[in-house]
Amino acid sequence: MKKQPPILNKSRKFSDNMASAHALVVKAKRGEKGNTNGKGYAVPAFNVTTFQGINAAMKAFELLGSSGLMAFSNSALKHFGDGDQVFGLDVATSYIEKMAKRSSVKIATHLDHGDYVTEPGRKVLQAAVQRLTSVMADNSTDHANKVAMPLQDNIDLTREVVDMAHPVGLSVEGELGVLAGEEDEDTKSDFSTYTNPDELKQFVEETGVLMLAPTIGTMHGPNKGKPGHKVKLNIPLAHELLATANEINNDIVFVAHGASTLYPQVVEYAVEQLDKMSGRDEDKQKWNDFVGTDWDQIEGLIEAGFCKINTDTENRQTFLSALLGAINENSAKIDIRWYDNQGTDALIKSYIQKLIMAGNYGVWHEPKMNVEKFKFDLGISLSDLISQSV
After folding, report:
1. How many CB atoms sit inside 10 A of residue 285's CB?
2. N or C: which end of the chain has fewer CB within 10 A?
């Protein structure tokens, strides 16, 4: 008889205002805000790749009283660490922990698409267990042979991470099925597979993971389908998978990868800026060809119990679009902080918009703005948007 997986050590104390990602996400599943329980909501996991991204996310969490979840991809860690992912972990997490000490909300940090297959991946994951508050063990794909990882191999590799992480209070996210698309140079796949409900039962029981990313039709990257065609997710399968998971353990939470919605107004703004600077037609076409997942599909996932929503692409696009606008406004301003602030303000708007859409506000304190009046607009300054929504 196989040994039971270790349970998550929920008595672990993290540094000031830091928390387990699972603790924040399970609150969302139960609809907990302050001292009340209501409708379930989702916690967007913002993939942060720069210090500007961290600052923007922290500002958005504070304004809305949201549970804060920031995720790091392997390529982001390389960027923070000048090519050294482990050093990047130390740099980024030290910065966040210092910021969190001044926070009025709870913050979680997460390794996105860590793997326990390759030697470099194992090294990063082991380091992440020492520095973050949750990790993903994505062993779903045999990238060398471009096929899905055999189920038992995925289980065994993920279980190794659970054995290492759960006793020290870190939640582990597993992935079952393969998600197509390209998030960055370190996270991409040419094919996808749906999650099998029978395999899900075996995977959850044998690994002990409390956070699970099943595949139901989402895709990584800015091109999730053909322009003009609406992306359709398998919402009935999502409900079936959640029912299976809940029978095993009601503390299991589902994660939606590749859930970027892409804002039409950001595309329009970027193309307008490119027109002003006589930008190349092929660049404008790339913007017009971006396809995201419509929000009604993501709402269907939230209703099906997906309460961690990974988001990255629309935030990158928002930053770039704002930067194009800043260059058009003043292309000779010799103060990089001004350009930095323009992009960071746009990121805050993007984060606020997604937090409101997901229902993740008023969790730790009342919002410092009227969420019903907030209108995401790149053409209006952040301070004006906030003052208009008070």
Report:
1. 11
2. N
Are 204 and 248 a contacting pair, CB within 8 Å? yes
> Residue 211 in contact with residue 162, Cβ under 8 Å?
no
- Give the amino acid at 103: S
**Where are the chain's structural domains?**
21-388
Render 216-273 in DSSP notation, one character per residue: SS--BSSB-S-TT------HHHHHHHHHHHHHH-TT-EEEESS-----HHHHHHHHHH
Q: What is the mean pLDDT of the chain?
A: 88
Task: Spell out a b/e string for 163-202, using b for 16 or more CB atoms within 10 Å of the CB, else e.
Answer: ebbbeebbbbbbbbbbbbbebbebbbbeebbebbeeebee
Is the domain spanning 21-388 CATH 3.20.20.70? The answer is yes
Pull the structure tokens for residue 29: 């599943």
In terms of pTM, does the model score above 0.85? yes
The separation between CA 14 and the C-alpha centre of its own chain, rounded to angstroms, equals: 21
Strand partners, 189: 181
Enumerate helices (H) and strands (E) in the chain, giving the number of each.
Answer: 14, 14
CA distance 32 to 36: 6
Contacts of 344 (CB under 8 A, 6+ apart): 52, 55, 56, 319
